[in-house]
Amino acid sequence: MQTTPNKVISGLAEFHTAVREAMAEAVTARWPELWLCDINFADWPLGDISVVESLTQWAQGQRQCRLTLLALQYDEMPRRHPRWVQWRRQWSHSVTCRQLQDVQADDVPVTMLAPGAMTIRLLDPLHHRGVVSHTPSDWLQARELIDAISQRSIEAFPITTLGL
């Protein structure tokens, strides 16, 4: 089995490229599960047409798929990522948004995880420096971290807001 070498991310543009490539790989590799974790997803390219198209192909391409977002807050999502918010309405049965409780901002990993396949992890979120890895030890470590903080989360970011 040939493994893909780790790829260094050293800026916002490279982070965006890594996320776009990972979303495209999710389609071709048929990853059944994706986890995205950030304070608020402000710097993610979730609203990009290519990301939304990849997510649509990913969700259409398999019966059982699950996308879970973990964040401290989702206030900026409708303004920053309107395409993704619209996409989520159609695919709500496959998407879960959870709000982290009793977690400090510094303890929230900026991570994309496809369990058993790959991780994107910003080790320095301020400068968008990190790594893309297909190494089992990296995705196992990311899974453990996400599992730990997701236990301190609640359902959040409803698809529609009821009000008078």
Topology, element by element:
Blueprint: E1 7-10, H1 12-29, E2 33-37, H2 49-60, E3 66-71, H3 77-80, H4 82-90, E4 95-100, E5 110-114, E6 118-124, E7 129-133, H5 136-150, E8 153-155
Parallel strand pairs: 2-3, 3-4
Antiparallel strand pairs: 1-7, 2-5, 4-8, 5-6, 6-7
Helix pairs in contact: 1-2
Question: Could you explain how this protein is built, in words?
Answer:
It is a single chain. With 164 residues, this protein is of the alpha+beta class. It has one domain: Endonuclease Chain A (Endonuclease, Chain A, 2-Layer Sandwich). Helix content is 35%, strand content 25%. The protein contains 5 helices and 8 strands. Strands 1-7-6-5-2-3-4-8 form an 8-stranded mixed sheet, sandwiched between helices. A hairpin with a 3-residue loop joins strand 5 and strand 6. Helix 1 packs parallel to helix 2. It is globular.
Please sum up the structure shown.
This protein is α+β, with helices and mostly antiparallel strands.
